[in-house]
Specification:
This protein has 427 residues and is α+β, with helices and mostly antiparallel strands. It is 40% helix and 15% strand. The chain has 3 domains: 3-170, no CATH class; 185-317, no CATH class; 325-408, no CATH class.
């Protein structure tokens, strides 16, 4: 059914085990070897030093949203689990909903852990899912837990609620299909020529598929922080010479018709005539135009006409909202900076998480800079995110290293007692 990854504690991102969801539910309901640690943590006040020490180091965690390769990281995501985890803190009850697959009391007993079955979940649309489902459940979810890699501390709740027949939340999915015809390399990145976008009054046609992303939301824009999103944005050059005219016209019109299935033949012919007049050098004869349009409507009738995703975007803006170019650029610069910051943070974290104390010794900013090949000033700028974690790791290394030195000193002392009589005898 659903598989979930398990981790040694909150400080580790290395996958310890992969369990079926039924096994996870049984651990939460009945407890396991870590139950005493859970009860011990609950004997302290949430947020206290004692509570945090037990929570961070002695209790395993689960990650319910995605499966990973080797360790939990955005770049290591292999596929969604089919579930999404919603964290509801500082709440006594959760409203009844057919979408709730499972819910149980959190480790601190001050909130709930909630699971919902989902389809079409991805890294890029994760935050949208999280917000949408939180709204459907009518709860104020924890925005800090709105991460694809979010981990959940193992809890204990003998009254866990489970509904295997819960409804599945299905998010709208954009179908990605291949080009209806093969193109030469130079024609694969066709984008729109704005000089051709004139349309009759009161008639609205689409010249890209961006509005598909804003069907059931009023977001100002969407950011794709993982891989760039491929969209359909057909284009034809401002000048097309003999030998390429039929191909370029067919490609462009096929995408316009695919984006606007209700467009009639006379209008597509009028659009083709406009392109032929302004772009084709020399112009195509009228009979060629008619052949192309008739061919496209024949493809449309047999469901052969498909949208071709030819252009990549990192950020898309809601076409229903009017924004100036300057305002868009402010958003682009801010979001691209945020993505770069997240990647830098992840790189530093992975370096620290995989630290080899035997070879590298104590963790320092300069050593991290050398290993990550980032500038020392960059490491210093992000160090506040890791300061506490590094302190804990270095402290553990110090204790272990001090213990080893103590053993070595004792061994040396023992050996001296053996060597002393032998040296006297030799003299």
């Amino acid at each position: 059914m659903y598989k979930i990854t398990k981790y040694r504690n909150a400080q580790s991102s290395i996958i310890q085990d992969t369990l079926m969801i039924e096994e996870v539910f049984e651990i939460i309901e009945k407890g396991d070897s870590k139950l005493n640690h859970i009860k011990h943590a609950r004997s302290f006040e949430k947020g206290s030093t004692d509570y945090d020490e037990v929570r961070k180091f002695l209790i395993p965690t689960f990650r319910f949203n995605f499966l990973f390769k080797d360790k939990a990281a955005n770049n290591n995501i292999t596929k969604p689990t089919g579930l999404i985890y919603i964290d509801a803190d500082l709440i006594d009850t959760i409203p009844q909903s057919d979408f709730i697959f499972a819910k149980w009391k959190s480790l601190s007993l001050t909130g709930y852990c909630i699971l919902v079955k989902v389809q079409n979940l991805s890294f890029d649309n994760f935050k949208d899912y999280y917000n949408k489902i939180s709204s459907i459940l009518n709860i104020n979810s924890d925005a800090g837990a709105r991460k694809a890699t979010q981990q959940t501390i193992q809890s204990y709740d003998p009254d866990i609620y489970i509904n295997y027949n819960s409804k599945i939340y299905k998010h709208p999915k954009i179908e990605k299909v291949s080009s209806p015809i093969k193109q030469k390399k130079g024609g694969e990145c066709l984008t729109r020529d704005d000089t051709l976008l004139s349309t009759p009054r009161n008639v609205k046609f689409r010249y890209d598929n961006i509005d598909d992303y804003f069907i059931d939301n009023d977001y100002q824009y969407i950011v794709f922080s993982g891989d760039k999103e491929k969209i359909c944005d057909p284009y034809i050059p401002k000048r097309v010479e003999k030998g390429n005219r039929n191909q370029y016209l067919f490609i462009y019109l096929s995408q316009i018709l695919a984006l606007n299935p209700n467009m009639n033949k006379p209008y597509l012919i009028a659009m083709a005539d406009n392109i032929n007049l302004n772009v084709m050098k020399p112009k195509l004869v009228d009979n060629e135009i008619l052949k192309i349009v008739n061919s496209l409507f024949k493809m449309k009738g047999s469901n052969e006409l498909k949208i071709y995703l030819n252009k990549e975007r990192r950020i898309i803006f809601n076409p229903k909202l009017r924004m100036s170019f300057q305002d868009k650029m402010k958003i682009v610069n801010k979001e691209l900076g945020s993505i770069a910051s997240e990647k830098t943070t992840q790189k530093i974290y992975e370096c620290i998480e995989m630290w080899d104390f035997q070879f590298e010794g104590k963790i320092t900013q300069r050593k991290v800079a050398d290993l990550t090949e980032l500038h020392l000033s960059t490491i210093k700028r992000y160090w506040h995110n890791f300061k506490s974690y590094v302190k804990d790791l270095n402290y553990g290394y110090k204790l272990e290293n001090g213990h080893q030195k103590s053993i070595s000193a004792n061994c040396a002392l023992d050996i001296s007692y053996i060597l002393e009589p032998l040296l006297k005898k030799a003299a």
